[in-house]
Model the fold of this input.
Amino acid sequence: MDQVFFVLSKLAWAFLSPGNLILFGFILGTLLLVIGFRPLAKRLLVIDAIVAFIVLGYPVGDYLIQPLEKRFPVPTIAELPKDVDGIIILGGGEDLPRTLSWHHPEVGNGADRYFGAKLLAEHYPNAPVIFTGGSGQIKLQHMGTEASLAKQLLTIMGVSPERLIIESNSRNTYENFKYTMQLLPKQDGTYLLVTSAYHMPRAVGVAKKFGVHVIPYPVDFRSNSDEIRSWDFDFFDHLKTLEPAWREWIGLTVYYITGKTSAWFPAAHQND
Done:
C-alpha cells in the first residue's frame, strides 16, 4: 500500500500543482478555441488569465502558508530542554537531481533545515543527529538518496560522522517516522524535530501517530509579513510560496483521511 500511495501522490500532484493548473487552463482553452468551442474557450481563458494575473502580481500564497508557519513557534535557546535524546532532521533541503548531475553536493529551498540542525547540534553536543530521507522522486528511486547527500552536507558543516544516524529508505513524511522509529536510541525519548515551518504540522501529526515525542523546531519560513507584502509582479517567487502551501494543505487532508496523522491540523496539544 505504501508504494501505491507514493506513486498516486506524485501523479496527483502533477495535476494539482497551481503552476500546472494555470498552464493546463491555457492549453485547454487554446484547444477548445481551435476546435470551435469559442464561448467555452473564452470563459476558460478569461478565468485563467485573471488567476494568472493575481498570482503574477501579488503573493497570495502567503495567506495559505502563514497559518501553517504560525502553528508552531520557534523555541528560543532558553525554552529548550536541558537534554534531548536526539535531533531529527526530515529530508527535503537537498537538491538531489543537481547533485547527481554535477557530482557535487547541492541544496534547495529547504536548506535552512541544515542550519537549524547545525545550531541544535552545537547546543546539544552529545545528542545524536538523526537524518531521515531517501528519494521523494519516482525517477530517482534507484539513482541516489537524500540521506547520502545529507551525510556529506552535515559532515561538511562540522557534525561528527560518529553522531549521525542515517535513514535512507523513506520517500515521504509518513515513511520518515515509520522507518526512523526503528533507529531511535530511546523509543520513549524526547527528540527535537527540524523541518520547514509550513511542513511542521503534518510532521508533528505523523510523529504523534507513531508515538514519537518531538519538540518542533521550525525553519525555512516562506511567507512575507504584512508590512512587507505588496504588489511586485514576481510570478516565480509567488509560486515558490503558493506551491508548497497548496501541496501541504492537500497533504494534511489526505494524511488525515487515510489515518496517517493524529488530527487534520495537528497542534502542540491535540485538543488545540
